[in-house]
Amino acid sequence: MKTTAVKPISLLPVLSVNFIGMLGYSIIMPFLVFLVNRFGGNEFVYGVLGSIYPAFQFVGAPILGRWSDTFGRRKILLLSQIGTLLAWFVFLTALYLPVDELFEVESSSIGAFEVTIPLLFLFLARALDGLTGGNVSVANAYLSDISNDDNRKANFGKMAMSSSLGFIIGPSLAGLLGATEYGETIPVLAAILISTIAVYLIWFRLPESNTHLVEPQARFSLKRVFSFEHKECYKMQKCKDTSFKSILAIPHVFFMLVIYFLTFLAFSFFYGSFPMHALKHLAWNSLELGIFFSFLSGLMILVQGPLLSYLSKRISDARLVVFGSLMLVLNFSVMANGNELVLYLAAVLFALGNGLMWPSFLSILSKLGGENQQGSVQGVANSSGSLASILGLIFGGYLYGIIGSATFYMAAGILLLVFILSFRMFRMSDL
Question: Rounded to the nearest 5°, which phi and psi values hold at 105?
Fold first, then answer.
């Protein structure tokens, strides 16, 4: 692929926005499962609540991705972050509503739980955040805009490291702040403050990266808004179709979407079941759960920072994907053991696998869309991940209620399939 010259734009603003976004997201992880339990839910409800965000993101991400190709990355990132900010206010409201039961469900398949008013507000908050949650795909498109073939993998490694840094601070902050007499209120207020800072950074500090914008026409068209109409493309140099069908027609994209889907499915099985595992099997509290996630993310920062920077100059993206996926298979196989010490040892494999595989995979994916289809490719990929998250989070929580920690073996099996399929990347010579 021919190297494309790009004007130098600082990575700091987009890395900061990505870090803040992950910090705001991860700050609720240590106590969300406890809130669901307190508001009347069970394992199944927790899994469904977790799936609400990716379900609405599945709808919103492709639209926001195509909008970013048309109207610019900066504007769509701003829209997305404002939606997140509003969602946090809804979440805060849920904490102060009376836990009044609306109705009760008793089922042999999904268990017994109560539907309460604050539980519904939690669902509403996650839905709003998910609908405007295309910031990941748009941020990846932004990063690809300002990267070239020489620094692409390193840049995506830095992006992954900023996510991990947010992931390490968020749970730790939640555990410390949530241990006060104010409970979950202080962490949620912190998330509101964090989201406000992100809005400021996007508005005042983030330059536009997409110089190939379509000039909007005066006549309003719903088809144009959702990128189903492309008559205005003559106004863009080297314009390409950004419809879903055309994205799938790009060489290797469908295969990469399959890998994207399977990886997210495996991780969603873990994230849908592990908090319940920590609550019911390990008898952890929110602080202990926060410490574990912080330890895990701290290891990933080391892997995605100095280790990936060293290896990326010596080992191809495809080899790192293959090796990383194998480490993840081993991690989830070991994690099924109930021993707490073994769990922390498994976290080393988790960090090594995820830290090497995912930035390398995103580096390969970012080369497929070219200059004019980055937002669309990333948006469709994000929707693929959202669909996998919907299924994985629902069934992860549901299956944990039935088979317990054996759910982690299912995640290992899916990643074994990813490991086998990823050998095909060696034949993608044009990348």
Answer: -120, 130
- Token pair for residue 413? 């099996």
Q: Confirm if 20 and 198 have CB atoms less than 8 A apart.
A: yes
89 and 192 Cβ atoms separated by less than 8 Å: yes
Nearest to 14, CA basis, from 117, 132, 161, 118 = 161
* pLDDT at 244 (0 to 100): 65
Task: Tell me what percent of the chain is helix, strand and coil, each rounded to the nearest 5.
Answer: 75, 5, 25
More confident residue, 386 or 265: 265
Copy the structure tokens of residue 230: 């492309």
Whether 251 contacts 414, CB under 8 Å: no
Q: How far apart are the first and last CA of the chain?
A: 6
Strand ranges inside 41-167, DSSP E: 101-107, 111-116
Distances (CA, A) of 172 to 136, 302, 314, 356: 22, 17, 34, 24
3-class DSSP assignment, residue 207? coil
This prediction has a pTM of: 0.70
Least Cα distance to 130 among 69, 184, 40, 63 occurs for: 63
Report the b/e string of 91-125 with b at 16+ CB within 10 A. Answer: bbebbeeeeeeeeeeeeeebbebbbbebbebbbbb
- 91 with 122: CB under 8 angstroms? yes
Confidence at 123, pLDDT banded by 50, 70, 90: very high
pLDDT at residue 227, rounded to an integer: 38
DSSP 227: T
User: Is 152 a residue whose pLDDT tops 60?
Assistant: yes
Is the per-residue pLDDT at 239 higher than 50?
A: no
Q: Does pLDDT of 345 surpass 80?
A: yes
Among 205, 225, 264, 253, CA closest to 388: 264
Going by C-beta distance under 8 Å and a sequence separation of 6 or more, which residues neighbour residue 119?
36, 39, 40, 41, 45, 94
Read off the pLDDT of residues 12-48 as tens digits, 9 standing for 90 and up.
778 877 787 777 677 777 788 888 888 998 888 888 8
Tell me the DSSP string of 319-343: HHHHHHHHHHHHHHHHHTS--HHHH
Sign of CA dihedral 306, 22, 317, 351: positive
